[in-house]
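DM between two lab members

TW: hey, do you still have the Methyltransferase domain-containing protein entry open?
JB: yeah, one sec
JB: this one, 208 aa:
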Amino acid sequence: MKDSKAFWDKSATRYAKSPVRDEQTYRKKIALTQAYFEPDWSVLEFGCGTGSTAILHAPHVRHIVATDISDRMLEIAERKAREAGVDNIAFQQGTLATVSLDAGSFDAVLGLNVLHLIDDLDAALARVHGLLKPGGIFVSSTALVADIHWLWRLLIPLMHTAGLAPYVNRFGKSALTTALSRAGFGIEQQWQPNKESVFIVARKPVAG
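TW: and the structure you got?
JB:
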């Protein structure tokens, strides 16, 4: 991610106080994800933010590694986990590219509202594929910046230059699904709550 750590460290407190924009959609994504989980699973969530989703998923799996680029985000996440009595999440600072993780060690990888913030999508998907066990799933919920109103597409780079927004990768659904296939995933489920975002469950083939 380009120049993102300082932005998210600065934004962490405000981000933590922000309500979920669409609670019904969020809860549906949680339920769709948990339908795949098994009690003995090991899960990675990269770009975990302040940990809210990881904390909700924690009772349904054995262990979660939750990473984020922002130390401040993780400080809030760790406090929230303690307050919730959740002790099976290990929080680590770093990006998908920098955190040291063993290949083939996760049953599921979650990338929620983060893929559009990564400049090299192909490298990120290749990394996810390598971290999953054969047959493991990758769950993503992603803004489709190429599909938003044209005015926002023009404004976002200007806002990034001014330090008012993080870097944003402007791909659409077709480019994302093509990249997932190119990385070796089979798309098992996809749902668009609106034209500007997509929820996808993709699976690493057992022989892959």
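TW: got it. Residues 4-203 form a domain with the Rossmann fold fold (CATH 3.40.50.150). The chain has one domain: 4-203.
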